[in-house]
Amino acid sequence: MNLHEYQGKSILQSYGVAIQNGIVAENSKDAVKAAKKLTELTKTKWYVVKAQIHAGGRGKGGGVKLAKSLDEVKNISESIIGMKLITPQTPPEGKKVNKVLITEDVYYPGNSKPKEFYISILLNRSSGKNMVMYSTEGGMDIEKVAEETPHLIFYEEIDSALGLLPFQARKVAFNLGLKGNSFKSMTKFITNLYKAYVGSDASLFEINPVLKTSDDRIIAVDSKVSLDDNSLFRHPDYKVLRDLEEENPTEVEAGEAGLNYVDLDGNVGCMVNGAGLAMATMDLIKQSRGSPANFLDVGGTADAERVEFAFRLILKDPKVQAILVNIFGGIVRCDRVAQGIIDAYKNMGDAINVPIIVRLQGTNAKQAKLLIQESNLDVIAATAFEEAAIKVQEVLLE
Ligand code: GDP
Ligand code: MN
């Protein structure tokens, strides 16, 4: 689950990480109220209006703007809320902005040389360890830094049993070139950032930029956070942080029904039981020169109701030109699945407007094939993997 900047920052704050103060708003009136409150709180005279979407690069796309008065807060918020923000990380059509974060200006005029750093904590999957990845080159595309000046990116691996040790926090501060008070602030920042990462069961905490102010404070100006979905049951209070509008609606609907559905950009819809078979089926489709339109694991029970639901999900995608059903009958018998498909097909009638290729293998596969052939429905039955592949190819060429 991905979080918005303002949500990530509030987790950071709860773990004692210093942040750029801000208040979220859904309309320009609340944005002005938020700005007034920030002035009471921090004495700031200038503000930053920041679009809240699940994508970075907002600054470049015009989603982060400095406001030097309450009037400007109002006007900028009005123009940003409701806009379709396009950044290098959004889909080409952009993402709709529903909320803005109004923050204090931390690059204020007296803050002569704010220095920007990059700091993230993430899981290094190849070593199986968490690591701090950091750089003196903050505020820029870290991908670009990695490509052009890789020696300016540092890595610090953390032993899960020991946690982040004090000497490691000092090493980070040292490598970032800090001294005196800012050195101390940075070690505290890193220590608490790691606590936030572990405590929230995150898979990523990326802060770009981390700012060093002229009075030697170290603060998080941005936050990009991904939480591990498998651990959400341990954090019932995080449930409200999920923003369904940021997610693919079909994937949300599938998730609610307990199906594993991932939207892809090809033309062959897949209905499969088991994730491994689903992966193999996608390969099969590629080999038959098609391209999978989705990944869908219907799980163990493939009764008529579930099959119908899955067909309807797949057919929501206008790119789908054929559907390949590939089910292995282990615990669930193939003839039962076949009957489920036939019943679903009859129920849906004209709603099914693309050819369906069904490959059932396992217990009672022969009976299943017979059932489908005798149903007189427009369903093509196959038993072998290759046979199914050839049939997919045939219907796509038609
Ligand atoms: P991103 O573009 O989506 O990564 O959004 P960020 O939160 O990183 O903000 C983008 C840029 O806005 C930063 O790199 C800063 O240059 C600028 N910015 C952020 N906060 C402030 C601020 O308080 N004052 C000023 N003047 N600029 C800011
Ligand atoms: Mn950023």
Description of the structure:
This protein has 398 residues and is of the alpha+beta class. It has three domains: 1-19 and 107-247, D-amino Acid Aminotransferase, Chain A, domain 1, CATH 3.30.470.20; 21-105, Dna Ligase, domain 1 (2-Layer Sandwich), CATH 3.30.1490; 249-397, 3-Layer(aba) Sandwich (Rossmann fold), CATH 3.40.50. Helix content is 37%, strand content 24%. It is built from 13 helices and 18 strands. Strands 7, 8, 9, 10, 11 and 12 form a six-stranded antiparallel β-sheet that branches. α6 crosses α7, α10 (304-315) packs across α11 and α11 (334-348) packs parallel to α12. The longest helix has 20 residues, at 180-199. The two termini are 41 Å apart. The mean pLDDT is 93. It binds guanosine-5'-diphosphate and manganese (II) ion (MN).
Quick rundown:
By secondary structure, this protein is an alpha+beta fold. The chain has helices spanning 5-14, 28-42, 58-61, 70-80, 142-148, 166-175, 180-199, 249-256, 275-287, 304-315, 334-348, 365-374, 385-397; strands at 22-25, 47-51, 64-67, 84-85, 95-96, 100-104, 115-124, 129-135, 153-158, 202-212, 218-220, 224-227, 260-263, 268-272, 294-297, 322-329, 356-362, 379-382. Strands 7, 8, 9, 10, 11 and 12 form a six-stranded antiparallel beta sheet that branches. It has a four-stranded antiparallel beta sheet with strand order 1-6-2-3. The protein has a four-stranded parallel beta sheet with strand order 14-16-17-18, sandwiched between helices.
Query: Span from first to last CA?
Result: 41 Å
**In percent, how much strand structure appears in the residues?**
15-25%
Low-confidence stretches: none
Total of helices? 13
Could you estimate the helical fraction of the residues in percent?
A: 25-40%
Give the C-level CATH assignment of the largest domain. Alpha Beta
Q: How many distinct folded domains?
A: 3
What's the architecture of the largest domain, going by CATH?
A: 2-Layer Sandwich
Sum up the overall morphology in one term.
elongated
State the fourth-level CATH superfamily of the largest domain.
Answer: ATP-grasp fold, B domain
According to DSSP, the number of beta strands is: 18
Structural class: alpha+beta
CATH fold description of the largest domain:
D-amino Acid Aminotransferase, Chain A, domain 1
What's the pLDDT, averaged over the residues? 93
Bound molecules: guanosine-5'-diphosphate, manganese (II) ion
Radius of gyration: 26 Å
